[in-house]
Design brief:
The chain has 367 residues and is α+β, with helices and mostly antiparallel strands. The chain has 2 domains: 176 residues, no CATH class; 164 residues, no CATH class. It is built from 10 helices and 8 strands. Helix 6 crosses helix 8, helix 6 runs parallel beside helix 10 and helix 8 runs antiparallel to helix 9. The longest helix is centred in the last third of the chain and has 32 residues.
Length: 367
C-alpha cells in the first residue's frame, strides 16, 4: 500500500545484492556441456559464465519491469487489476526479447553481496516485493565493488588474444528484508532511473507542436542544436554518448543565444546621458571580452533575458542545475571517475528543453 513518508526515517542495516550481466564478445566461448561455469566465488562475490543469463537475473528483471509498470500506473486497479500477473508477464516478455537478441551468447554474471544502511520511507507493497524510493546510496555500492569487477574483466579478457570485449546487458541492486521480501529502491534523482509518464494528445497540444515546429524550422541558427538533440534522444541507452550529445547541444545553444542577447542584456547601461560615450564604452568592452566570457557568464546573460519575468529563486534554480551539469561535464573531460548509468541525462534534456522552448516562444528576442 502507498504510505505517506514519515517525518524521520530510521536507518536499518539490510543485505544487498548487486548483479551485473556482461555479454562477452570474442575470445571466450562457453560450450553447452560446460554450462554454467563459476570462475570465482567467496562469501562476498560470485562470477559465473553462462549462456542462460535470465536464470540469474530473475529479481533484477522483476525490478526493471516493476519500475517500468509503475510509470504506467501499476497500482491503478482499473488499468492493472492484477499487478503481480502484469509483472510476471512483463518479465517473460523481457526474457524472450533478450534471448532473441543475444541467443546463446556467453554472458558473465557478476553477483556482489554485502550489507548497507537503508532508510525505508514511502513504499508500495506486493506479495514478496516492496518498491520504495531513495532508500540506499547505489553509487556507493557500485563504487565499493568497482575494482573487483574490473579485475575480473581483465582476467577474463586476457585469457584470449585478442582479448575479449564486454557489453553490459543489464544491472540491478536489490535488498532483502527480515521477512525475506525483495526490496527495490527507486532513485528519483540523477540519471539512472526515470519513471516515464505520458499525457493525452489534445487539439491544443497538436497546435503547440505545430507552432513549435515552424519556429524551430525558421530558427536556422539552431540547426546544430536540433541535430545534436536528435542524436541525444536516439542514444539514451548509451548514457555517456547521450550526455555528450546533450551537453554539446546546450553549450552551442548558450553561445548562439548569448550572441543574440548580449546587447539586449546590456541595454540598461546604454540608456541615460551621453549615449555616444556609453556606446563607445560598450563597443570597447565587447571587443575586449569577446573571447574572455566564461560559459557560466553567457548562461547568466541568457537566463536573465529569456526568464526576465521569472522570480529570482526560479532563475537561481536554473543556474544551480547548470552548474551541476557543467561539473559533471568537467569531470568527464578531465578523465575523473564517474558512474555512466548515473549521468544526469534527463536533467540535462529537461534544462535544454526549457531554454529552447523559451527561446522559440520569443521570436522578437532573436532579432
Amino acid at each position: 500500500m502507498m504510505g505517506e513518508p514519515p517525518k524521520t526515517l530510521k536507518a536499518v542495516s539490510m543485505n544487498y545484492t548487486y548483479v551485473t550481466a556482461l555479454k562477452v564478445i570474442g575470445g571466450i566461448h562457453l560450450p553447452p556441456e560446460n554450462e554454467p561455469r563459476v570462475l570465482y566465488e567467496n562469501d562476498t562475490c560470485r562470477f559465473t559464465l553462462t549462456t542462460t543469463p535470465d536464470r540469474y537475473l530473475s529479481k533484477v528483471n522483476q525490478g526493471l519491469v516493476a519500475i517500468h509498470l509503475l510509470g504506467r500506473g501499476l497500482f491503478n486497479a482499473e488499468k492493472f487489476p492484477d499487478p503481480v500477473e502484469e509483472i510476471r508477464n512483463g518479465v517473460e516478455a523481457l526474457c524472450k526479447e533478450r534471448q532473441r537478441t543475444n541467443g546463446k551468447s556467453t554472458v558473465l554474471i557478476i553477483e556482489e553481496f554485502g550489507k548497507c544502511s537503508a532508510s525505508i520511507g514511502r513504499s508500495m507493497e506486493l506479495p514478496g516485493m516492496v518498491l520504495t524510493f531513495d532508500a540506499i546510496n547505489k553509487s556507493a555500492i557500485r563504487q565499493a565493488h568497482k575494482d573487483r569487477i574490473e579485475v575480473m574483466k581483465l582476467a577474463l579478457a586476457f585469457e584470449s588474444d585478442p582479448p575479449s570485449r564486454f557489453k553490459k546487458l543489464t544491472e540491478g541492486i536489490f535488498l532483502t528484508d527480515d521477512a525475506g521480501r525483495t526490496v527495490y529502491s527507486l532513485t528519483l534523482q540523477g540519471g539512472n532511473v526515470r519513471v516515464l509518464t505520458s499525457s493525452a494528445l489534445t487539439d491544443e497540444k497538436t497546435t503547440s507542436i505545430a507552432d513549435r515546429y515552424k519556429a524551430a524550422e525558421a530558427a536556422s541558427e539552431l540547426s546544430s542544436v536540433r541535430r545534436l538533440y536528435a542524436q541525444m534522444a536516439e542514444n539514451e541507452d548509451e548514457p555517456l554518448k547521450a550526455f555528450i550529445f546533450g551537453w554539446s547541444a546546450l553549450e552551442i545553444f548558450i553561445s548562439k543565444a548569448f550572441g543574440k542577447f548580449e546587447r539586449h542584456f546590456m541595454e540598461p547601461l546604454l540608456e541615460g546621458a551621453q549615449p555616444r560615450f556609453r556606446q563607445r564604452f560598450f563597443d570597447r568592452m565587447r571587443e575586449v571580452m569577446k573571447d574572455k566570457y566564461r560559459l557560466t557568464d553567457k548562461f547568466s546573460c541568457v537566463t536573465a533575458v529569456l526568464f526576465s519575468g521569472a522570480c529570482e529563486r526560479a532563475a537561481e534554480e536554473h543556474m544551480e542545475k547548470f552548474r551541476r551539469l557543467k561539473k559533471m561535464r568537467d569531470k568527464i573531460l578531465h578523465g575523473e571517475s564517474f558512474e555512466e548509468n548515473e549521468l544526469p541525462i534527463h536533467e540535462l534534456s529537461g534544462l535544454l528543453r526549457k531554454y529552447v522552448v523559451a527561446y522559440l516562444a520569443e521570436p522578437g528576442a532573436r532579432i
